[in-house]
Amino acid sequence: MRRLDSVLVLVLACSSVASYCRAARGYPELQLGLGGIARYGQARFANALYTAGEWVTNASGGWTWQNVQAPQLDRNGNPLYVLPNIPLVALPLYDASTTERTNMCKGRLSLTWEGEADIRLPNATHVSGTVSGVVLNGRRDYTSSDGGGNRMMMYLYALNTNNPPRNIRLWLPDPADAMNRSLAPPAGQAGPLFHPTYLDVVRPFRLFRFMDWLETNNNRTEDWSDRRPPAHCFMHGQHIPGKEPTGGVAYELCIALCNTAGADMWICVPHLATDEYVTNLARLVLYGSDGTNGYTAPVADPVYRPLDTNLRVFVEYSNEVWNPGFTQGNWAYNQSVALGLTWGQFVGRKASRVWNIFNAVWGAANTQRIVRVGAGRSGDAGYCRSFINEAIANGVKPHFVSIAPYFGNDIEDWVYAKGAAFFTDRSSANINCAHDELQRRLLSGVAGSSVMNDDTGGGINQAIRDVCVEYNLPLVNYEGGPSIYTSDIDTPSNQPTGSWLTSFMTEFNRDPRMVETYNINMNLCKLRGLTTHAMFVDISGWGKYGQWGHKEFTAQSTNYYTRDCAVKYKYMIDWMAGQASIRHIDEPLGSVPTFDNDYNLPPAEIGRPYKVDLTTSGGNGARTAKLIGAYLAGGISVTSVPGAADMLRIAGAATNTVAGGQCAVFARVLDADGDPGWGRFVFKLIGGNGTIVESDFTGASPALNRPWTNCYYLAPEFACAGWDRGAGVTTYAGSNAFIFALNMPSTESAATLALAIADNEYLTVSVTPPPGTTVDLRNAEVQFSIGRIDYHAPRRFAVFTSVGGFTDGAQVYDTGRFTSMLPEAFSFRMPGTAAYQSLTGAIEFRIYGYAGQYAGHKASLSAFKLTATNVTFNQRPIAVDDDAAAQAQQAVNIDVLANDMDWDGNALAVQSVSGPVHGSAVVMSNAVQYTAPALMSVTDTFTYVMNDGRGATDSATVSVIVVPEPAVALAVALSLSCMAMRRHTLM
What we know:
The protein is an alpha+beta fold. The chain has five domains: 56-192, no CATH class; 207-407 and 447-485 and 512-581, TIM Barrel (Alpha-Beta Barrel), CATH 3.20.20; 588-673; 691-867, Sandwich (Jelly Rolls), CATH 2.60.120; 882-982, Immunoglobulins (Immunoglobulin-like, Sandwich). An eight-stranded parallel beta sheet has the order 16-15-14-13-12-1-18-17. A hairpin with an 8-residue loop joins strand 2 (55-57) and strand 3 (66-68). Helix 6 packs across helix 7 (343-362), helix 7 (343-362) packs across helix 8 (381-393) and helix 14 (514-527) packs across helix 15. The longest helix is centred in the middle third of the chain and has 20 residues, at 343-362.
């Protein structure tokens, strides 16, 4: 595949971001999902203790920690007593990555508290304050010279039970002078809540989603008393005995971040929350709180401030309540069944109840600041409709539809299938190869098995777009970005192979080409109506459970598109800037530009020059076409057309085939007022040296029009009987593929290959060489594509030939078991035995399916190609168009064969020439002599036919520029010379 370096260049040009860039209908271009708070997480707060999550002891010795809960702690997690010789321990950022700790924890640390206690950092170097002993309102300063290797451990050795400690803080180093100053405030003053480096991460964005901060998934919070108070020692983990998790970060801190950064607040209300809980939450966001309850009216000097009046609150009922992988999903499904409702209807009812409570608390004067999140399900339009209809029935139509159009397209499975030799070599070549494949899947519509993707490969299917149009609702993502994880493969029983794969996929995410891939996905989403993209998440460590973070660690550089920088985060910033001048498709300004070409472009024969111009029309004013992404064979490129900014040209001569045998191009056109239009195009690569037959399955229901004989390419004088099926196969309607199903047992293990053979469950095609000749199929290459349409469709396929016979064990290839729900491309070599050397008559190929379940579960055959390695038959030569120049009334000899070629190396000869329109042309000395007309300045054309001396012919066109004067002729010749330098000639 050809690299698309122009994307990086274009993104690099976007170096600044508007302070507040809004997309359609008043929603921002990007929403930022905030990664969870944990001791293995990141330093988001100035006080690192928030990340510890719990007090522990190691009373049993060693490194076996026991969690401490009530009655030893008060409601805010502050210790009330310490058992003799059993200190309490907190482990802030203890399991964070070495890089995170090195950048955020190395330097001056300050430990402060109110009350009387003896608290220390025994593995840091003491700098000031008392070394030990119970101290009132203490402060102890330390230095950590090795924040990466020397993990922070806070020990509480003793306290005064009559005045126990509270407001315990572990202040991280001040990034402005890390070795000499911490973020601790002067005595008597309030310190910063958020780490300044983290504020730099979030400040470019204007909408924060707090799903992970609030520990929404599997949350058991019910009553308002369950929620975490803002004065709590920790901002994650269990704080109510018997309920885990409960609450995550206190709402007051979430509001403080939004107020500090000037961003709207997206909250996820716990699925079990009572009406009292929701009422208090609505009051808290509107009026602020006293640390326990929300105020019921405006307060002049609130203890904790409300959300600023210029900011909005986005209210979502829990998170992914459709997902059975979460407690809330199972609960909602069971509730819906019990009530006789659909799943989406039940969730819509619960969401509308939450919204109505917010409306009642906020009143008419403030409800315009409430945004109702219509949380849908990617790829499930029925669920979305049920949710929306129920909400409308309850008087609160959602403000937008929200889904999660991740991309990843099962690329990790593809890498794994390549074998350990591939993914243990994390070279640029292999990383590029994987990006090529992922981009192929995005561009050609190979979505992968994940429910988060669809047949466009881009994450938002047309059915979801139709829902948005039907209800006049914008599409605002709740999550999005790359979804690549290896946890199903990287298991304890699959080592070290699993960890090798995880390491490869991590490097894959770091590679700057992720910008190209991400850019393709973003544009695919935009053409389906996306208003706001969601970055899931801002920062997180990368590993087998995913590389979700757009930054790997808080202080990661975003200066460049290099693997040591946060390329995904930087791309999002640059994307936001680039979108500032582009209108949303639902808010056009006048006429909208469009591409004129069909989705399916003419096929390109390998070795033969190819040229297609992608033209545009419509819009207001001048149009500009831009390439977004392309998956191309070597020798083919997409370029702008000089003097035609509204056009792109696909041109060249393909030197090789590509995976799936299909090239793809994705482009965008903008008019003068910023209205966009996108074009997606594909074209087949056909033929090439040694090709015997290549089937063409395009058309209406090939399986119902048997035998299906259409071919992209058939070698001269060969015959192809067309595709048919065995008696045990049922065929179905369906365009552009041969759709079929088998009648298999109810268990996969019983659906053996032997049974498939006995039941005649196969597809078949036969190829016959020219009469009186033989064909050599030793080591011939066979390529075919099979797609599993239904879940229980065959998971293995075996290929047999009439040469070897059709008995179990005689197969020449087996795909192995695969489960992906996409067209998988397979390739293998025929046996190199003498039995395949000199074949006459028809050679039959059969493809048997097996290892599936039940009857009627459909699969598809969408490609088949047979290519000889030992070519014993004559192949058609390739004639290439020519350009020439001639002076009026002068003759010029044109060597038309100079750029022609023959796969077999045969000597070529000019056979005939057609008459030009203006001048004359004759065959002379195996060339064409053209005589120009008198006193004319024209472009003349003629066609010639050449042959290879073995009966095969081809033709091409010659264009001749006729000029009346020598000086002009010289200028034209120079122009033609420059054109020749740009020509793609197969050597």
